[in-house]
Every structure is written in structure tokens, then in C-alpha cells.
Design a protein that fits this description.
By secondary structure, this protein is mainly β. It has one domain. 11% of the residues lie in helices and 48% in strands. It is built from one helix and three strands; from the N terminus they run βββα. The N and C termini lie far apart (28 Å).
């Protein structure tokens, strides 16, 4: 068992959700989308 990861890079925000398959724990992060480099919205830490 592991984790399930889902992401959505949108026009305004980038959202990432992680679900622990065994525990059912959910973690969620939201960051501004950066149109010139969309990966920045996924990998940027705050």
C-alpha cells in the first residue's frame, strides 16, 4: 500500500491532494499557478 496523488494545474491555482491508502489520511496544498512555468505551482514550498 502507498499513496495516491492527484493534481490540477488550473488558470489561477495549482492544487495537489495526497491520500494515504492504508490510513485514509488526506493532505492538500494550493499554490498560485505560474503560466510561464506551470511546474512552479506544483513544486513551490510555502
Amino acid at each position: 500500500m502507498g499513496h495516491i496523488l492527484a493534481g490540477d494545474v488550473g488558470g489561477t491555482f495549482t492544487d495537489v491532494v495526497v491520500l494515504g491508502e492504508r490510513s485514509g489520511d488526506v493532505a492538500y496544498a494550493k499554490a498560485p499557478t505560474t503560466p510561464l512555468e506551470p511546474s512552479d505551482g506544483v513544486f513551490r514550498r510555502r
